[in-house]
Sequence to fold (1028 residues):
Amino acid sequence: MIRQLTLNESDNMSADTKQNTITIDGQEIPFLAGQTIMDAALAAGVYIPHLCHRQGLTPHGSCKLCVVDIASKNASACTMPAVAGQQISNNTPALNEARTTITQMLFIEGNHICPSCEKCGDCTLQAMAYHLGMLDGHFPQFFQRREVDASHPTVMLDRDRCILCELCVRASREVDGKNVFEIAGRGTNARLIVNSASGKLVDSELETSDLAAHICPVGAILIKESGYKVPIGQRTFDLHKVSEIGLEKIVLTKVRQPDE
Amino acid sequence: MTGLLRSVISRAYAESPNVLHVLYALQRQFLHISDEAVREVASHLELPTSQVDAVIEFYSFFHRIPRGRYDILFSNCTSCGYMAGGVNLMAVLGRQLEIVAGHTRGDGLVSMDQTSCIGMCDHGAALLVNGIPIVSLDVAMITRIAALVEAAMPLEDWPAEWFHVEDNIRVNGLLLKDDLPEDISLRAIFAHGAAGTLSEIIHSGLRGRGGAGFSTGMKWQLCREAQGDAHYIVCNADEGEPGTFKDRVLLHSYADRLFEGMTVCAFAIGAKQGYLYLRGEYRYLLPHLQTVLSRRRELGLLGGDILGQPGFSFDIDIVVGAGAYICGEESALIESLEGKRGIPRVRPPFPVTHGYLGQPTVVNNVETFIAAVHILRRGSAWFKAVGTEKSAGSKILSVSGDCAAPGIYEYPFGVTIRQVLDDCGAKNAQAVQVSGPSGTLINSAEFDRKLGFDDLSTGGSLMIFNQARDLLAVIVNFAHFFAHESCGFCTPCRVGTVLLKNGLDKIAGGHGTRYDLDEMQRIAALVKYRSHCGLGQTAANPILDGLQRFPQAFEQRLVHRDYEPHFDLDAALEEARQVSHRDDTAAHIE
Amino acid sequence: MSKIRIATTSLAGCFGCHMSFLDMDERLVALLEHVEFNRSPFTDIKHCGSCDIGLIEGGVSNAENVHVLREFRDNCKILIAVGACAINGGVPAMRNHFNLRECLEEAYVNGAGVENPQIPNDVELPLLLDKVHPIHDVVRVDYYLPGCPPSADEFLKILGDLLAGEAPSLPYNLLHYD
Fold:
């Protein structure tokens, strides 16, 4: 089910705006009924770090980058409904330290060897680490050894880089109208699997034009023969900060371009 | 083969449409679930093959590689685990059967592994063989078990007394005395009406007995008021918290009261269907529970027009889990009931409005439903008169560990830890783990603290550790438990519990420094405050409590160096030594 | 005032970080007003003496890497992990996806064009660890300078901070992992 989010500017200016606001780091932000804190923040141009969230897909709340403090409690901004009067802390040293630690956890859990990864420069995890000023993975590496699936003619799957955000799982179900991906296993043994009789991508319904083939924030799902085409200096995060992503009003379309 | 597969699947599906049941039937019949079986299940149940695969991999009791005809699982709990007698019983059996934990023997006769607490903590070391518990293990029994396995002796011919699980009820209270006539509460609810029934529960002050302590009356009321196509009742009998076994006893000896309680709830909220979610470790109780359900149907206590009350119909099905502690979390339990991986849902919305199949659902603990029966029988005032102001009634405790009389103790809320320790014959206790690993670890200076929602909240487990115990070993055990049971959904818990486990292993192994200890504190805080659900939010409790109350347990193991490597350098050269056939001085690192 | 003494080395790395260091070009002259080099490929001094700063490029792949790394840690007041390999193993760590035996057999036994196939076993050769590790898995590291390689500007920034007696930090525009 796609949750369509339509923001009407005039609604924000309506008389009852006063009642329907939340406050993030002292800034008053309007929201509409049904919006989450993340929805409201992004619509207002306020960045809350996130990896597993994408406007238009069912919120997930798993990466925990978007943790915010609401009074003395904490919540995931992407799943917590906005409620009038919420006092929310977002861009604080303590929260950003927690986010840095969580990002480090994701780096050491998988094999994120940036120089050898096609996604380098276009990788949201990497850009998040830059945003947070992360210098190293800090913790001992887990040295994942998950199966690589290069069976599909145009898409490849390097599970060692998967951060289990399930964006591809949701994109396939909710936008592509398929059900190509799933998470199996438990705890740190959790891994991305493919819905096909052989378990291989080639036998799945995945097509190059699927959103699921393009939505991976890291280098786990890659379009073949497109790596390194964009020169250093012109890649997504050479030109943009991660904090600019998701702030635009995204209209989901079925066909996505690899250089998106 | 395909024909046999299909017949097993369709027979199981006819018994219960839940995918967990179908997979159990396959596992039992074929000792594993093959690729072909996955495809057949997916086709028969009209599920994606990936969902069937995902479910199999999620639950500990399903296997893609064949297990032995005797599948032996030792509990690894600190109270009923294979180390309970101080001897590693799993290693003893492994030596005798020439088998390594986690593997199936080459001849396919036997497989052996460890599993999280199986709820036999009042019986010492325990194991499950093909799902059936054997308790009070010692080395002599292990030797006999090895011989019986080698002789391929059917389980029916093993000594019957090995399988005898006692209730071990030591102190009776409000609920366990149970001296009223059958099903009087059902007459009472008809007299009260649904609103009156709710009102009794609300006025009683009853709070959930699982540990979280949400007002039962309010939960029922919220569910009753929620709009939905149907309302459901779920009994959480996924008693997975290590050291907890009271539900085992309640299910064994008070099943009628439980089902009566679910029926009371059904009347109050307008539900027609209930589910008992039974943990896989208690599958051996299933025949008994089904007998009780059948009898209640025959007596008109379940089914249509219960006790002749027109329009009041309600029935209960049992769904059995398959080895996943996380399914004790109510929304993960609901996911599991729906045949999925047990991943806790995003909350809000809560199950009272969006529960099973998205419909309003009450999920309560076994003990909570039983308490409701007694409230309806005797009245809310009777219940509220016992316990404390904020914690009405009694609490049934599972007491285990270093004491003379482990077992079931029921006390009014407000009882002190010291009282319990005295009653169970605990001498020289240095620490008590209240409410299991996810609860609170207290020291002897705190033994006058009281059980109740306003002080020491508890789901019912008390694990006692005397002065001779190595508390760090206990905390390490708990850290391994949580890393094993983390569902993997959110980053802090999925990665953090493994970092905590590895860090504690390093410290316990004599390779930890002050730096490592500080790291434990920092990671523990993150896991506690930033995880998605109760599992992660409590997984670090034993470490944080331990660091606060028993710092010496950690500090005495530290090496006083600036830094220690995160891995064993010399061991990391072993593979190279083997490949190159070298063992010279330069082939080692000190 | 005596000069700050710096030692540098490459463990399992490509010396690219060293090349990048030299990309300071003429700025090196000014830097050398304040620093001098002890053990380093720049000096060919073979063992690390007492130093203020040690710069380690490369991950820990074999027994010799461990010995060199320990020598640096023992002798350097401040140890800095330089580049992707020192920080998380980098490109050499791509072998971690495979068993060591698989790697050695591919290189010395089964690989295309291998003559006289045998896995080297001379005692002069350092044995490989089963995995390539970041250096902080073995010793305490004080600061991290990411990049593959870190740019000359990053070296200057971090050394400049240290020379000024400040904790080194990298601004957003200098932070990159490639």
In short: Residues 1-17, 248-260 of chain A have pLDDT under 50 and may be disordered.
